[in-house]
Amino acid sequence: MAAINAKATTVHIKVGAAAPVKIGGIKDFDFGGGSAPDIDTSDLDSTKREFMTGLADEGEMTLTLNYLPTDAGQTAVSAARDANTRIQLIIANVPGNVKWEAYAYAKTFSISGGLDQAFSASASFKFDGAITKSATT
After folding, report:
1. Domains and CATH numbers, the chain
2. CA-to-CA distance for 57 and 36, rounded, in angstroms?
3. Residues of the chain under the 70 pLDDT cut
4. Which of 19, 61, 119, 135 could form a disulfide with 125 if both were Cys (CB 3.0 to 4.6 A apart)?
5. Nearest Cα to Cα of residue 76 among 93, 90, 59
């Protein structure tokens, strides 16, 4: 199986019943890798520690962006963070025929810059519930 080129990946934000809006200026992204806690079920009859797995947490997603002050997607991320609004994220790679969808809360949206640098931004999201994976077609 061939590797999937991340270049064609898009991330859209959907707020309420509004149409999804593409987040522009994305340089890289990172998501998934959540975890589930270990629950200690050992008791006085145990000869070794015994555990069961708790509820899985899908973790977080981070984006690194070129800051585009008029980009509707970046504006929506910032507004969702300010309002503590539950949003839907849609991450799609059409050439790779793969799409992920999840509900989340925007935790951060920060802007930075410096000498001989373009303005950049970063955003982070906390997933709320499961991430679903499907084909794009």
Report:
1. 6-31+59-130 (4.10.410.40)
2. 6
3. 1
4. 61
5. 90
